[in-house]
Amino acid sequence: MPRQVAVSAGYNNLPNGNFIPEVWSRKLQAKFYATTVFGAISNNDWEGEIQGQGAKVIIRKRPTITIGDYQHGGTINYQDLTDEKIELLIDKAKVYAFKVDDIDRAQSDINIINETTLDASEQMKITIDTDLLANIYTDATSSIAATVVTKTNVLEWIVDAGTLLDELNIPVDGRWLVIPPWVAGMIKKGDLKDASLAGDMTSILRNGRLGVIDRFTLYVSNNIALVGVPATGEYKCIAGTRDFVSFASQYVKTETLRLQDTFGDAIRGLNVYGYKVTHADSGVSMPAKKA
């Protein structure tokens, strides 16, 4: 639609400025998304076939064998094996839906459906990530008291979490820690800016990569649950291994429908998913507060 522009006094050749066309850029403005971590910190070993909301995945746990004493010529007691199972319910569903008018699509110089669908996919990941991080920390067996994290004590805070997992015989492989950006800032300001302490040839301040600290791969996320307000509330950081939480997800329907009451298309997608803490000993709740 033409736009109006300012006209000099006494200039009447373009009344109201209605013949100056608008120019729309074909280059979409960059859109930035919150980093998601659920794919890196959870396992999907039992994802199976998910047909829709309300399905479930049966996870069978390895039996625990009791070791007993034996004497020469003695009798042996045989243990009955129990078939312990965990049910992972696919009880959550998220949907996106939007419509595109035929005229708008015909006159647009960008592929509006593709661009909007890409955004829907990113928003779906952020929504699921925020949901998962807001709930799994409450099921962790171990926890650290709410800590005011500073550049002075941030390394001790991380080491304490590793010690709790060590005491429960949790494997070192695959350990992770999810922190908000301000905690990452404390790490960069603290002693770990020394390359030798970080176990790297290049300082954290030089390469900007937090990498691995005390066997934890660090992930920075803005989706961590916050109880209270940013200045004084608790950020529900969490550490663990991929055994801690099981996750299953599937897009069960993505479709384009012809609208009945106008000329245009409706585009929609349905994602069903579920998650469950399946090995509570493998997680540590680490609430952090700003100084």
Tell me about this structure:
- It is a single chain.
- By secondary structure, the protein is α+β, with helices and mostly antiparallel strands.
- The chain has one domain (38-289).
- Helix content is 20%, strand content 28%.
- It has helices at residues 38-41, 102-107, 112-133, 154-167, 181-189, 204-207; strands at residues 55-60, 85-90, 92-101, 142-143, 147-148, 176-179, 212-213, 216-220, 226-227, 234-240, 245-258, 264-277, 283-289.
- Strands 4, 5, 6, 7, 8, 9, 10 and 13 form an eight-stranded mixed sheet that branches.
- β11 (245-258) and β12 form a beta hairpin.
Mean pLDDT: 83
List unreliable stretches of 5+ residues: 1-5, 11-20
What is the overall silhouette?
flat
Helical fraction equals 10-25%
Structural class: alpha+beta
Please give the alpha-carbon distance between the first and last residues.
Answer: 52 Å
Report the major sheet.
Answer: 8 strands, mixed
Following the backbone from N to C, one meets helices and strands in this order, namely HEEEHHEEHEHHEEEEEEE
How many H/I helices? Answer: 6
- Number of β-strand runs: 13
Estimated share of beta-strand residues: 25-35%
Number of domains: 1
Radius of gyration equals 27 Å
